[in-house]
Design goal:
By secondary structure, this protein is an alpha/beta fold. It has one domain: Rossmann fold (3-Layer(aba) Sandwich), CATH 3.40.50.300. Helices cover about 55% and strands about 15% of the residues. It has 15 helices and 8 strands. An 8-stranded mixed sheet has the order 3-4-2-5-1-6-7-8, sandwiched between helices. Helix 3 crosses helix 6 and helix 6 packs across helix 7. The two termini are about 25 Å apart. The relative contact order is 0.15. The protein binds adenosine-5'-triphosphate and magnesium ion. The site of adenosine-5'-triphosphate has 18 residues, from helix 1 and strand 7.
């Protein structure tokens, strides 16, 4: 079975970059590694210096052990529906605009699809190491809650309330759709809107057994994964990083990305004369305060949770090839 690392954290902190750096490091140590991203902004392709990145894992040119894939959420949901639903239900669901909107746009659906895809690759046994970059929209912790949320949505009270305790047949469905209020709404909205919605909820419920079983697999894989939380010293990502402790399995590593060197904290005056000296001294004071804050926040974090904390330096230029990613990733290995 593959060793799995899930890289998570708030938006924009460097998840995609550090997921790629982790996979490059593993590949260059001789393990076969796959990095899986859900980021439609193609940041993984940029970080790896690639033109294209597809839904299926492809070898990264110039690296003998490294593969990368960018998840297509809609295609993954189509595959799941085809797998879990009867063929006629699958056809109806895939043609239903509400289903498409949920699969395409809802963060929970994105997170769940990423978890399913991750599980499929883990179970294939094809790679020694799989690194999963969590979607930006999931905002960290939601990624881990997605399997349970999906199970609860499809099997839960909301759908039962809408569609009735027992799964209604088509006739009952048309009785729902024939209610005067719904008919009126449909005529005002100018289409079979509520009929489509009722159709959608009922079809969704038939997916329950398949999705519930798969969701448990996804949860098991997540429980066994190494969890890396990426943050910076800024308040918003830090708050997100704190939320990980006590709510799911504790993270294994907290990475403070774009950290300033510790020795900037007490660098002292620049030594330049005149106006240049004044500007340089002011800049050094500002960066010195930042560097000091960074090292204090990291120490507080490791004291409070007893978790391994590392600092990844702020590079002068963002990494855009595998060599610079490897260099960045060195800070992550003990
Ligand atoms: N240590 C670093 N030094 C310099 N630049 C960095 C570093 N880490 C990340 N970056 C740059 O910061 C930007 C954001 O990084 P990245 O896309 O990896 O963040 P993310 O957490 O995946 O964002 P999102 O939540 O939008 O998916 C990118 O331009 C990346 O190249
Ligand atoms: Mg990203």
């Amino acid at each position: 079975m593959s060793g799995v690392t899930v890289v998570t954290g708030a938006g924009g902190v460097g998840k995609t970059t550090l997921a790629a750096a982790t996979a490059v490091g593993a590949a260059r140590r001789g393990e076969s590694a796959l990095v899986l991203t859900v980021d439609p902004a193609r940041r993984l392709a940029d970080a790896l210096g690639l033109e294209e990145l597809g839904n299926d894992p492809e070898p990264v040119p110039g690296e003998s052990n490294l593969w990368a894939a960018m998840l297509d959420v809609t295609a993954s949901w189509e595959a799941m529906v085809n797998q879990h639903a009867e063929p006629d239900v699958a056809d109806r669901l895939l043609a239903n605009p509400y289903f498409r909107a949920i699969a395409d746009r809802f963060p929970a659906a994105q997170s769940y699809a990423a978890g399913e895809e991750m599980s499929r690759y883990i179970e294939s046994g094809r790679w020694d190491v799989i690194v999963v970059d969590t979607p930006p929209s999931a905002g960290g912790i939601d990624f881990f809650e997605a399997p349970a949320n999906m199970r609860n949505l499809i099997g839960g009270r909301l759908l039962r309330w809408i569609t009735g305790a027992r799964l209604p047949g088509r006739k009952a469905l048309y009785r729902i759709a024939a209610r005067p209020a719904l008919r009126l709404a449909d005529s005002v909205l100018g289409g079979p809107l509520l009929e489509e919605i009722a159709d959608f909820f009922i079809d969704l419920r038939t997916l329950h057994d398949g999705i519930a079983a798969r969701a448990r697999h996804v949860e098991r894989h997540l429980a066994e994964a190494t969890i890396v939380v990426v943050t910076t010293s800024d308040p918003t990502p830090l708050r997100e990083a704190h939320r990980f402790f006590g709510s799911i399995e504790a993270p294994d590593l907290v990475v403070f990305n774009r950290a300033l060197p510790d020795d900037w904290a007490d660098a002292g005056p620049s030594g330049f004369e005149g106006k240049l000296g004044m500007v340089a001294d002011k800049a050094m004071e500002v960066w010195g305060t930042e560097a000091h804050k960074g090292s204090r926040v990291r120490a507080e974090f490791s004291d409070r949770y007893g978790v391994r904390v590392v600092a990844v330096p702020w590079m002068p230029t963002p990494p855009t090839d595998t060599d610079s990613l490897e260099e960045l990733g060195r800070a992550l290995t003990p």
